Amino acid sequence: xxxxxxxxxxxxxxxxxxxKDYGKTDEIFIVVPSREKKIVDLSPSVHVxxxxxxxxxxxxxxxxxxxxxxxxxxxxxITAQDPFFTGLIGVLLRRRFNIPLEVQAHxxxxxxxxxxxxxxxxxxxxxxxxxxxxxxxRVRAVSQRVRESLLTLGVSTNKIELRxxxxxxxxxxNYQTRLDxxxxxxxxxxxxxxxxxxxxxxxxxxxxxxFKEVLRQKNRYLxxxxxxxxxxxxxxxxxxxxxxxxxIKFESWTNDPISYLKTADCLLFPSLSEGYGLVAMxxxxxxxxxxxxxxxxxxxELKSASPKVTIVPVGDRDKFIEAMLKICPVIQPRKxxxxxxxxxxx
Length: 346
Fold this sequence. Notes:
The protein is α/β, with parallel strands linked by helices and about 350 residues long. The protein folds into two domains: about 5-170, Rossmann fold (3-Layer(aba) Sandwich); about 170-340, Rossmann fold. Helix content is about 40%, strand content about 20%. It has 14 helices and 13 strands. A six-stranded parallel β-sheet has the order 10-9-8-11-12-13, with helices on both faces. A four-stranded parallel β-sheet has the order 4-5-6-7, with helices on one face. A three-stranded mixed β-sheet has the order 1-3-2. The chain is globular, with a radius of gyration of 21 Å. The chain starts with 13 loop residues before the first helix and ends with a helix.
């Protein structure tokens, strides 16, 4: 497996747990880029090794690690996390060793114009991905939306395998929270949560503009942004420039995301493009309301007919604002964020 997810190197992370589950049926060797060299055995059958260096250096080191693993072990399948950086490495290894290649499509790269129109880098990824997909033996689609966009692209139906990301929804439903956001952030009428990577495709800068308008009517709302990424500094400067530090707070990534999902009033998911949207599925399973754009699982695995899910067109500011203003507090046992909220419930 060629992956970009550095959290695999943390044996306590959720993604590492997912790899351990995969290792119950297969022995897996995983290579991943990182800032430091690490060799980790997550279980007796799941082995992870990192490649260090810059982008170009990591590319060749991942390729060489793949060669070493294939030469030393009886590898039956190569799987690449995406049809871009890792997919290209997978194609090269497939040609060298004549081993079947699976390319995973976690994002809806071809169902909208986002990747063709959002800069030179994404434009190059778009065309590289089409080339890689044409040379894969199998393509894993993580959602029905992704499958349909691949079929429209011309990928053969017998080449596509629909295999969603595993999520233990019963575990989430029964999870006992370790924290309450109302205790951590008292005095707010409602708490809205963003949980995940801060990248341009996640559209968080746009969400800040939306939330600024919401605050004109509801000045005791809180937007809590949990995660990090390339857009983090830009978004924080935007919040400062709008003087919204009292209503928009930031936290780094947490190893207890379910507690955040269960004690927030609503998860916000404003992405421009998405292959799946696991956090939206988890929020719904946690009993928390979700406002999301029409991407990933929206209108497929998650339906707007559900009283807990509101789906709006991508980029529709007015609809998103309207949905946020209509959200009621969560209906489940919890401490209230404000005296007014408790009085209203009583």
